[in-house]
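Today's session is about reading a structure prediction critically. Students often jump straight to the picture, but the first step is always the sequence itself: look for stretches that repeat, for charged clusters, for runs of hydrophobic residues. Only then move on to the predicted structure, which in these notes is written as discrete structure tokens rather than atom positions. Here is the chain we will use throughout the hour.
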Amino acid sequence: GSTFLDLFDADEYAECRVDNLYYPFASKEEWEIADYLLRSSLSMAAIDEFLKLSMIQRLHLSFKNAKELRSRAEMLPSGPSWKCQTISSIHPTKSPIRLFWRDPVECLESLFSNPLFHDKLDFIPRRVYKTAERLLRVYSEWLTGDSAWEMQTQLPRGATVLGTILSSDKTNITTMTGARVAHPLLLGLANIRMCTRTKLSSKAFLLMALLPIPKYLHPNQRMRGMLEDRLVHECLSIVLKPLMKAAEVRIMMSDPVGNVRHCFTPLAAYILAGITVNPDDLEAYFEACADSRLNGVHAPFWMDWPLADPSIFLTPESLHHWHKEFYDHNLQWCIMVVGAQELDFRFSILQLTTGYCHFSGGISKLKQVTGRGHHDIQCYIVGLISGAAPRHFVIVIHALMDLRYLAQCPAPNDNLLACIDRSLSTFHEHKDVILTLGARMGTKRPIENWYIPKLELLQSITSSTRKVGALIQWSADATEHAHISEIKEPAWQTNNNDYDPQICHHLD
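Below is the predicted structure for this chain, in token form.
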């Protein structure tokens, strides 16, 4: 098969690089200057001014201005090319709906054949045990879970399962002002080992699409939200169609060392009841969905994806599920039971600890708390409420904290999963104390139910771990960080108008 370097050398300017490795630049020094300027936050005008400096002109660079510099950069070998497609809609919008996307098979092959991952890839599902007696099973990588094993048994002999990871989340492009938002769809490969894939500097996720964020003109805000959800799934169905086809009929891909493999592309993870009413009747369909607590999407993107099971690939996610659940609910219960003033005082007198945030003003009035803040508060909370809250309430918070920390283990085994189930049972045995104390408060009065979706998701931690491996590998930390290199840095190079095509042009 063709390796990454084979494809690199197949470029139209490959012959020019035989004599000059840094072509289209004249030398290594010129390439270093160009690399610095292109990666910097300097505008085109600022680059022009820099290149006009007398000292720089004495270097006799082959480019004289920013336009020539960018034209030379566009002569370099590129990755998967971008496409633009206009999406039609029977519901009026303020502006046309445009979808920018790349072929997902090309993106997946780019990751699969990347020489940087040549010794970081696994190809064969396996079951790992602590001892030779096979009594204590360990779950770590995706390929150690039951899901990959079951998929492999359904495929032809010699086939390679390539687990597809998708992540989509809106992100702010501008800071403080402008309110410009992008909706990136990132693609990852579950066969890349967890320690590499979750490392922020490994660049193991590629931007595959920029999903449109339209402004629907429907007068009802809830209907506008449902139309936006439907559009996301419609766009995902368009973008991911080649991957669905590859999961059905197979595709031949070359690994980093040039071995051609017979690959299938099931959906490994997506980091994020039947209705008989006509879906085009928005109001009636919305009401029917509300009764079943559904969001109104009648055609989810995974509907035609072979081997895709939403109960498996919609995995629990530590950043937005566990840590956010702690801050939105558990911490608020503590504030109600202990009292905001008392809890703030206890946080304020803690001794400063290197590596941890010190909450000198307390925590009851914090704004825009990051995931790091959630982590640090959790480190202190059980000790700080002890002696100030009833014993059974402390047991409830302690059980949830145990569950949260155990679930983040990078290689959980059957014993640890049993401990997680016991912690969850302890919470359910004592949770009535929260309602008794009136700790679960709404805006005006106590809430007398347990309708908390993030809390319900805790029930699936152990079953999901057995299916897809350690859940910490599906955390959104890596994909959130990828927004910087894939969205925000390219956006800084634009003229702050019509971001999407300029981001694609920069990444091309």
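Discussion point for the tutorial: DSSP finds 23 helices and twelve strands in the chain.
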